[in-house]
Structure formats: C-alpha cells, structure tokens
C-alpha cells in the first residue's frame, strides 16, 4: 500500500509497551536476555539460547498476502496465501498481545548498496532475538550509512502468540505472514530466530527483480582485482567454509544482490552452522563463537560452560549468529565488483557427479533452477540409499516469484558479465554414500582455487556424456583419476546404473518449471542409456 505510515505503526507498538529497549547494544541485550531467563553465557562470553520445539524454519506456516500486487506475480505453488483482511486481524491481535509487555526495538538496514536498501525495524519482547537480528542485519553507521531513499520494513515478532487458523487463515498456531504491499512481517508461535532473517530476504526476493537486481541465496568473496566470486549451495555443501578464505575478503555468507554496479551483501552478519565445528577446519567461524555478543542457538554446553559442537541432542541445526566485521578478512562496505566466477556447490551422495565441471551459460541456468544436492542415507531401518534434494535457485522457500524469473535474470547477468560458471561437487567419489568416500577438502580447495584463478581456462577438457558439461582432464595437485568418477568405481556397470537414476531424478524435477525452462541444457536419458 503506497504511502503506508510505518512510523505510526512502530510508535504505536512502542507506546503501548510497558518498557522499551530502543536500539540497545550487545551488553544491554545480553544482560536483558539472561534476566528474562533461558539464556546463559559460555565460558568465553557467547550467549547460548534454546529455540524450543522449533529448531528450524516452518515453511508450511509461511504465508504471503494475496492482493493486487502479488496476485499475478507470486509463485503460489510454492507459497501459502492469506487474505488482506485476515492479515489485518492477525496484526491487530498480535498488537494487542504485545501491549503492556517490555519490547526491544532495533532500527537496522538491509542492503549494503544505498540504491537498494531497506530501513528495517524489528519489534520483539525477546532480548536475545533483538541481539540476534542486530548481529545479522546492518547496524547503521558501522561502515554503511542509511540512505534517504531506504524502503521502510516493519517486522513484529511475537514468539509466544498462538495464531488461530480459523480466525487468521493460517495452518497452525505458528504463522509467518508477509504483506509485500506494505512491507510488514508478522512472526508468531516460533522462537526459531532464522524466521526473522529469512523474512527480510523473502521481501527482497519479491521486490528486487523489479529494480533490475538479481537476488541470490549465496555467499560471495573478492578476487585480487575486486571482482566477486559467487558460491551457491544448499546446507552441507560447503558454501560458508569455501567462501571463507583469508586471501579473498568476504562480501557476505548468505544473501546478496547482483545489480548493474556489481554485488552487494543484504546483511551485516553471519548465521553459521556449528555442528562439528573445530578450530582446525574453520578457524574464523570457531573464533567468532568465542566472542562476547555472539548468539549460539541450541548448542549444548559441558560442565565448564564450553560448547560441545559435536553434541546434536537438541538438533543438528545448531547455529552461531555474529556480526561479519568480527571476521579477519572482509570486503570494504560489503560490496564487490561484477562477478568473474559463479560456483554451484553440490554434495552428490550418489557418487555420480565429477568433482569439478565447467558449465555453459545455459547449463548454469539449468543447475541454478535445479538447485541439487543429496542427503545421505538416514538412520531408519531399511533406508540405505541417498536422497536427492532439489531446491530451485538454491533457496526455493525464500523465492516468492516463479524460479524462471530468477533464472532469466541470471542468464542475462552471465551474458553481460562473461562470468564463468562451475559445478563443484563436494560429495562422494568411488561409490555412493556408504560405499565410496567423501572428496577430501584439500582436493576440493585445490580445484576451487584453479577455477577462481583462471588456471583451467586453456586446459584439455573431456565432454561428459551424461550431463553434457566439460570436465578438466587434469588439475595440478589433484589425482587425475579423481576427475573421472566412473574410473573411481570398482564396477563400471554399477556406476552407469546409478548415473541413469540420478539423470532421471534431475529430469523429473525439472518438469515442474514448464516449457519456458530450457530442459535441453540438462542431462540426457538417451546419453545415460548409451
């Protein structure tokens, strides 16, 4: 709704509060969180919290207001709908619920590029959630100034409010509702803090294409000449680990925009997974978990209040939220030049994909739309095979528009920039999970370095008969046999059968995008049969 008065809404909520913590900094928020109960400090000073029943996002409880703006634009097959009247009833009920409570208000920014910036106010009764989002978004004046043209966004967070499906048009007592016309977000019935962060990203993903900006669920860092490299990948593929490189300043680890001016971070912090975190494997992230003000979600402590990152008794989705500027090597202003390299990360547990492949622009869009990785076999009896996971644009839950909208924008960005796209497999080789072994991190880093530094621009390539992409014949420092996964299997026929299965999964998944998507750029069942 053009001209909506966000200040009136924000001030009305603040005025009804019994007390207001206005843009409090970390020490005050830490003290308040401990005072509210349920939070405690590690021996190093990080704040440990638990999110209760919800240890991850609730995608089925996320709704977008269906109105004149969204009706013909939102990909409703992927998004729940709520009516404008139902949203307003929910807004009124949450406002009444919060009245008389002590509230924390944080006025923050999203978008390091002043031309594409959001003025985000978060109101919550939970001090640790206020600290979380203060860590994750951009704190005005800390290297990035507020633009006079920043678009106002208001997020009202009520974790203890229970929605009524009959009254509010939702599915359960939990609801995440986004009004794209007025840029209001309501979050209720869940304490999982990632919902706040991802709601900002969802708003950005809806509006950015209209401004000629490609929104991206990726990490990004800088090359020696200021050019950006992008890293797309689902959880467990190594996106955060591989983009954190002391020789390449980090632009950001999760959410970015690609405009005519280059790449910019949407956020001002990092939300890193901590399961099995170690100082040796990920020293920068490990160090961040030992600082005062970092929020550790669902991390178990030992008797000495030291984190047990290997303990997943609460959830495997343990997280650390900290400001990006605590890292040793970050890009100035959280921006970078036009990308030179685009990397799609996958952890293929089927043991089929090569460790590295060069993609044509059409193939890059195909793999972007597919968003493939594979989860390893679970612990349930009888489950022995990997499970394929496809998430369009490597972030389908946060993409309100049809994936082909983002795919077409990526195709245009690749055409204009001349950026080279690569598929980097961090998964299994020599057999599927349970038979083969995980590609070692040293080889992965060597392959990535060769791709980023241009070492592979003129090397001999072989044509992959399954996926049609090019695979380097040799890379210095990497065993040649590793580059051809079929050679690494003890039984070539078994590899062929597994490969045909994966090709079929890719093609079946791609059917949902319709004829406007270029399925010909993907794998061929005929080639797999041959």
UniProtKB/TrEMBL annotation:
It is found in: Cytoplasm. Pathway: Carbohydrate biosynthesis; gluconeogenesis. GO terms for cellular component: cytosol. Substrate binds at residues 57, 192, 198, 319. Binds 1 Mn(2+) ion per subunit. Pfam families: PEPCK_ATP. GO terms for biological process: gluconeogenesis. The keyword Transcription regulation does not apply. Its cofactor is Mn(2+). Signal peptide: none annotated. It catalyses: oxaloacetate + ATP = phosphoenolpyruvate + ADP + CO2. InterPro entries: PEP_carboxykinase_ATP (IPR001272), PEP_carboxykinase_C (IPR013035), PEP_carboxykinase_N (IPR008210), PEPCK_ATP_CS (IPR015994). Keywords: ATP-binding, Cytoplasm, Decarboxylase, Gluconeogenesis, Kinase, Lyase, Manganese, Metal-binding, Nucleotide-binding, Pyruvate, Transferase. It comes from the Bacteria. SUPFAM superfamilies: PEP carboxykinase N-terminal domain, PEP carboxykinase-like. It is an enzyme of class 4 (lyase). The keyword DNA-binding does not apply. ATP binds at residues 198, 217, 233-241, 282, 319, 438-439, 444. Its EC number is 4.1.1.49. Mn(2+) binds at residues 198, 217, 254. One of its GO terms (molecular function) is kinase activity. NCBIfam families: pckA (TIGR00224), PRK09344.1-2 (NF006820), PRK09344.1-3 (NF006821). Belongs to the phosphoenolpyruvate carboxykinase (ATP) family. Involved in the gluconeogenesis. Catalyzes the conversion of oxaloacetate (OAA) to phosphoenolpyruvate (PEP) through direct phosphoryl transfer between the nucleoside triphosphate and OAA. This is Phosphoenolpyruvate carboxykinase (ATP). It comes from Devosia marina.
